[in-house]
Specification:
Layout: H1 3-17, H2 23-29, H3 35-66, H4 71-89, H5 101-108, H6 114-123, H7 126-138, H8 142-164, H9 166-204
Protein name: UPF0056 inner membrane protein
Keywords: Cell membrane, Membrane, Transmembrane, Transmembrane helix
InterPro entries: Multi_antbiot-R_MarC (IPR002771)
């Protein structure tokens, strides 16, 4: 097992999902809740994210085969999506790809926001799902799968801890500090997206690899 590979996968999840950057959204969505209710919302949201990503990990290739989508084509589509999200993150925003105003209004009317819109689509959004599918398709051995499952579970635990400390972190960093972290994550995410697109283009057009 290449531990470096799975560390990169873990860092990719951190950059794409960006739990620190989502803290203002989490605090806003749970502003009407008591502290125990907010902690419960954070726990449910992160558990849901882990479940969604694990299902994606095991069913991703099946979905591609079902729709006869080649891995290179999906790499280009997924990488392009990651690039779009990264561009909005570089401006300190979540972007309409992750959520839009209509979803904001709908979520405000919900009593529970843990699964929708917090877990899906804000955390386990299109970028994270496409990243997991691409990585799983490229690394399909049993040991690879164990490594990816471990990385997803560890990410879920770290994200849960960040959400649990949300009020403290938000007060310490402030909106400016969170925006700086979001922009850094956006830059890393943009690099990941470009790499994925380039790999997909080489797969579709082998002449480019020469």
């Amino acid at each position: 097992m290449d531990l470096t590979l799975f560390f990169q996968f873990f860092l990719g999840l951190v950059a794409i999902i960006n739990p620190v950057g989502l803290l203002p959204v989490f605090v806003t969505l749970t502003s009407h809740q008591t502290e125990p209710e907010r902690q419960r919302t954070g726990t449910i949201a992160n558990f849901a994210v882990v479940v969604i990503l694990l299902v994606t990990l095991f069913a991703g290739q099946l979905i591609l085969d079902m729709f006869s989508i080649s891995l290179p084509a999906f790499r280009i589509a997924g990488g392009t999506l990651i690039v779009f999200i990264a561009m909005s993150m570089l401006q300190g925003k979540l972007g309409e790809v992750k959520h839009n105003k209509a979803e904001d209004r709908e979520s405000a009317a919900r009593e529970s926001v843990a699964v929708v819109p917090l877990a899906l689509p804000l955390m386990a959004g299109p970028g994270a799902i496409s990243s997991v599918i691409v990585f799983a398709a490229e690394n399909s051995t049993v040991m690879d799968t164990i490594g990816m499952v471990t990385a997803i579970v560890v990410f879920g635990a770290c994200s849960w801890a960040i959400f649990r400390l949300a009020p403290v972190i938000f007060r310490v960093l402030g909106q400016t500090g969170i925006n700086v972290i979001t922009r850094i994550m956006g830059l890393l995410m943009l690099s990941i997206g470009i790499e994925v697109v380039a790999a997909g283009a080489k797969g579709l057009f082998p002449a480019l690899a020469g």
